[in-house]
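[09:14] KT: can someone run the structure on this one? pasting the chain below
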Amino acid sequence: VINSSRRWGKTTVLLLYALIYAIKNPNSQVKIATTTQKALRKTIFPIMRMLIADAPRNLKPKWDGQNGCYKIFNGSEIHVHGTDAQRHDGLRGQRCDLGIVDEAAYCSDLHYVVQDILLPQTLTCNGRIILASTPSKKVTQSGEEFKDFCLQSQVQDAYFTKTIYENKSLTPSTLAAGPPYAASTWYHRS
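[09:31] RB: done, C-alpha cells below
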C-alpha cells in the first residue's frame, strides 16, 4: 500500500512499474483500476503516452480499445478500467500477475475490487496487488476501506508512505508558499 500526498508522482511511478513488469515478464496480465473512465482519459492515458513516446516503433505498446488494454510486444497485456458505474467488472479474468489500484481511496467499491475481483486472480500465479492513494478528507466507504488496507499493510510490513515534503521536484519555496497539501492528509510528516 502506498499512502502519499498529492503531486508525489504516484500514477507515473505505478504506470512505469506496470510497463517494466509487463516487458520483463512475457505473457503477463497486468490490471489497473482507477476512479472513473474519465480519469483514464485525463490521467492514465496521457501519462502512458508520455512514458512510451520514445519507444521504438516495434516495441511500443499498442492500445486495443475493444479489450481495454495495452498490448505489449511479448504477449503481455495491461488492462485499464475505471471503477465507476460497475466498470470494475472489466478487470475480471483468469489471471492477474500484477494488480494496481490508483487513487484507491476514491474508487467505487474498493474492498470488492481488491478482495473479490483482483485477489482471486493472483492465487494461481503468485501475483501481487498494489494500492496507492492520497487519503480522502471526506468520510467515504472507499476512503475508510483504504485506511483499513493501510493498517493491514503496516502489520504485514508492506506499507509505504511519502509526504509532500519528500517530493524532490518541489523547491522549498514552493512548499512554503504552495497549497497545504500535507495538511490535507490524515497521516503526519515524520
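[09:33] KT: thanks! The radius of gyration is 17 Å.
[09:34] RB: yep, looked fine to me
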